[in-house]
Amino acid sequence: MSKRANLPYTTQDLFPQVGGSNLIHNENLSPPKTIRTNSVTSNLSSNLYIPRSTSNFHSNNSTFSFNLKNYKTMFKRLLKPNTLDFETAIWEIFHLIINPKKMYRSHYYYKQSTSSTKSSYTRDDPSFLILLTGFLSISAIAWGLAYSPTIIDILKLVIYMVFIDFYLTGIIISTITWIVTNKLFNLNINKYNINYIEWSFCFDIHCNSFLIIWCLLYVLQFLLLPIIRMKNIVALILGNSLYFGSIGYYFIVTFYGFNSLPFISSNINNTKSSSNKNPAKVLQLVVIAGILPLLAIGWLITLILRCNVADKMVSTYFN
To answer: Where does the record place a coiled coil (predicted)?
Structure first.
């Protein structure tokens, strides 16, 4: 089983266009260097972005079977470290931090064919999840060594930060986004619909978005904590900006993730809704006109009330 090497950049990768099949024949474009032979089709042409309708029960059944196979593949790779692709996972982590929009445009969600009519965009490699879990565990140990008195307290902190903050919160958020997005973008919601968004894809998006929270709240906050806990206006602005900024950026990266789906990012309306709304514009409206303004108002209110969110959160963690 070959691993993905450095992810390729072509014009088609960075600027996907619906129906632009002629681009793949351009002599200036280079084909992908390596692909997963077990799950990726050999031709990553522009038809990747052309939604197709399901046609029969056989293809529907094969889609469900593929989803189960995808989970089994991830579990098998956990037991076989030599099949894990940490190189690509590190590439994803680096670009999620510096430029998440560009990372999503590079097709790091490789299409995995379930049948002639259905594709999956969910990871089949747990390397990213393993690395992020490891980063969170190391951060929790560092926090524990600095502020917790005993080994038991450190272990409790690891369990809380990794399994409560990341996994349990992620399961809840992924379930909510899975339900909401499928209701928004599908008239007939079922797992066999060509536009059906899988729960595992929503959890992938959570993992990607949580990376910035790890950077700001688990790493940067740890380094700046002596300043944040001072009783002055600088500490107040810095601490509150870290929390509200990281949460806001979480939703921005989440938007990029869902917008990377072809039936959302394209201008083709795949539903028969009379309102004829563009799914990408709906997502933008929710994030830009809904969530971000609420976070900005919350940030301003905490400053007026002189409530240092960072200081209170640390006090909650360490009593």
So the answer is: none
29: left (phi over 0), alpha (psi -120 to 50) or beta: beta
The mean per-residue pLDDT over the stretch 106-116 comes to 49
Rounded Cα distance between 229 and 248, Å, is: 22
Q: Which of 235, 253, 254, 247 is nearest to 293 (CA)?
A: 247
Q: Give the total number of structural domains in the chain.
A: 1
Percentage of the chain surpassing pLDDT 70?
65
Beta bridge partners of 113: 119
302 within some domain: yes
DSSP string of 198-245?
PHHHHHHHHHHHHHHHIIIIIIIHHHHHHHHTSSSHHHHHHHHHHHHH
Confidence check: pLDDT of 302 > 70: yes
Give the residue with greater pLDDT, 113 vs 192: 192
* Residue ranges making up the domain that contains 208: 84-114+124-317
Dihedral pair phi/psi, residue 103, rounded to 5° = -65, -45
Read off the pLDDT of each residue in 80-107 and give the average, rounded to a whole number.
Answer: 85
Quote the CA–CA distance of 244 and 200 in Å, as a whole number.
26
pTM for the model stands at 0.72
pLDDT > 50? residue 26: no
79 in a structural domain:
no
